[in-house]
Amino acid sequence: MSARTEIDIADMIREVDGDNRMSPTNLGATLASRLCVFYSDLEVTDVIEFVERTNPDKQMGAGRLAELIVAEFDLDKEG
Prior knowledge:
Largest sheet: none
Number of helices: 4
Strand content: under 5%
Distance between the termini: 11 Å
Oligomer: single chain
């Protein structure tokens, strides 16, 4: 399940910021607004801060960032 979640989030990152022009803050906010629909316990500000802290220079690939988001917010748990 974790791999599918990571793939879905990586695809979402590529969809919203495929040209890598968003700021880390805007990317985090966009991801949070979409993820909070599926994960009601997720806080928008937590996702924004995580993306800002983890990928401030936007050098990390979508797959790796997705992997870290899943791990940080325990999004692969079954529920």
